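// run 5 | inverse folding | seed 20
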């Protein structure tokens, strides 16, 4: 069995790839570069994880048009990355408009071309930042798109095992799978030391703290 794993190099996608491997899939790692602030660090981590898993392929695709569109602090360096704020009533500016639909479209092309049976993506709908393209309804709709938009004999399952889990649940699963979290990166802002203030840093640190485990990556504060 073969599975395309969307591998950003972050905590969730790395855990997901280890989970796919544990389920018997050969890994086709897909890394998308959309000129995000931490792209170099993310690429390095994704390649490391893919290598440790013995991935059949590591494919990097340039989707830099997201930086042309702008409207996100991840792709427009003129926009300051939002700090985590539990009282925020709107989406944080780290949201990249309709990103997951673009990434899943590319993953579907890759999966169909390689006769893969599954696409694994690490979206979650609980302690996430409210991104609309992480909702279960979106995933269900995109599965329908895959079914309708591929050849009749193609059967690709969109697998989202973390969609109803918290970050702590994901970490607990990753520890069971011996995921090397020292080779992952979650910060939206920095590549040398994680800022500790953005939403991604917040949820990662909270997960490690809740399990009483030291996070192996460095933080500014």
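// decoded
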């Amino acid at each position: 069995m073969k599975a395309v794993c969307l591998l950003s190099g972050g905590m969730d996608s790395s855990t997901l790839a280890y989970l796919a491997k544990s389920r018997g899939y050969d890994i086709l790692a897909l890394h998308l570069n959309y000129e995000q602030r931490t792209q170099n660090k993310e690429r390095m981590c994704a390649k490391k994880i893919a290598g440790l898993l013995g991935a059949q392929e590591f494919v990097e695709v340039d989707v830099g048009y997201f930086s042309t569109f702008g409207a996100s602090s991840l792709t427009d360096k003129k926009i300051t990355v939002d700090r985590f704020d539990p009282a925020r009533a709107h989406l944080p500016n780290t949201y990249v408009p309709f990103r997951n639909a673009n990434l899943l479209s590319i993953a579907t092309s890759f999966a169909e071309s390689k006769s893969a049976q599954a696409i694994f993506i690490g979206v979650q709908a609980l302690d996430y930042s409210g991104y609309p393209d992480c909702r279960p309804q979106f995933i269900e709709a995109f599965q329908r798109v895959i079914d309708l938009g591929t050849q009749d004999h193609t059967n690709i399952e969109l697998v989202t095992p973390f969609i109803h889990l918290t970050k702590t649940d994901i970490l607990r699963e990753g520890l069971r799978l011996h995921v090397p979290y020292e080779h992952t990166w979650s910060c939206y802002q920095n590549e040398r030391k994680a800022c500790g203030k953005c939403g991604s840093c917040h949820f990662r640190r909270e997960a490690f703290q809740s399990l009483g485990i030291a996070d192996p990556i460095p933080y500014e504060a």
